[in-house]
Amino acid sequence: MSVRQKLYEGKAKILYVTEDPDTVMAHFKDDATAFNGQKQGSISGKGAINCKISAQLFELLEERGISTHFLEQVEPNQMLLRRVKIVPLEVIVRNLAAGSLCKQTGLAVGTVLKHPLVEFFYKNDDLGDPLLTIARLLLLELATPEQVEQLREKALLVNEILSEFFQNRGITLVDFKLEFGFDSQGELLLADEISPDTCRLWNQLETDENRRVMDKDRFRFDLGEVDAAYQQVLEKVLSEK
Ligand code: UDP
């Protein structure tokens, strides 16, 4: 399938149109940003690593009955996706406290939550992706009440599948971000990517709170060896239990 013009360029990916109006090509970049674009850099090999990790995880989720936009990986850093209209929400699922949850609630980093927590953030760079209440989300008509419940259920199911998958590989899935979109048939699909850019992953063999980090927090907080950590996640994802 030949690639045509650029549809959209984001911080970590470029989307291109293809000959099929319902299919887009995603090109994963090595570029990395954090803190709403204030910190910028590059992680060597990240594009191909995140592309492969995402492909593997989307395939796993599809096998377990979750509809995703993933079609196939066609190059080390390129995959074909079903075209969707993205719901402007970042759906965050948390199993342990970290990041903005700790900052906003005072919970200690690593506190195990009694139940997974699902939160909705407004996907809006100009506003700095703020945390939404359900009331505000409905007020802004970002989703209907039924869609909110659908998103919550799907996110919790994804969490069950991915938590078990990573647990079997010695990694704790601390939290992660999902995005969803509607395809041309109106079906709600899991979209975007699932990678160390969008998940917090802790190596269970490491007790030191910096050494255990296998995700973008290594880049955010200048912990070093970012590319090696991403590569290690890929190797774990590709390994049989
Ligand atoms: N996350 C993401 N993109 C965002 C915001 C968050 O992928 O724009 C991921 C982040 O990597 C973490 C989870 O969502 O795995 C929860 O992030 P949090 O709300 O704690 O925000 P942060 O600490 O990253 O500001």
- End-to-end separation in angstroms reads 35 Å
Average of per-residue pLDDT values = 97
Radius of gyration, in angstroms, nearest whole number: 17 Å
Ligands bound to this protein structure = uridine-5'-diphosphate
Summarize the biggest pleated sheet: 6 strands, antiparallel
Binned, the helix content reads: 25-40%
Shape: globular
Structural class: alpha+beta
Number of strands: 13
Series of secondary-structure elements, N-terminal to C-terminal: EEEEEHEEEEHEHHEEEHH
Specify the number of helices. Answer: 6
Per DSSP, what share of the residues sits in E-state strands of 2 or more residues? 25-35%
| Uncertain stretches of 5 or more adjacent residues | none
Please tell me about this protein's structure.
There is one protein chain. The protein is α+β, with helices and mostly antiparallel strands. 29% of the residues lie in helices and 33% in strands. It is built from six helices and 13 strands. The strands form three sheets. Strands 8, 9, 10, 11, 12 and 13 form a six-stranded antiparallel sheet that branches. Helix 1 runs parallel beside helix 6. The longest helix has 23 residues, at 145-167. The protein is globular, with a radius of gyration of 17 Å. The mean pLDDT is 97.
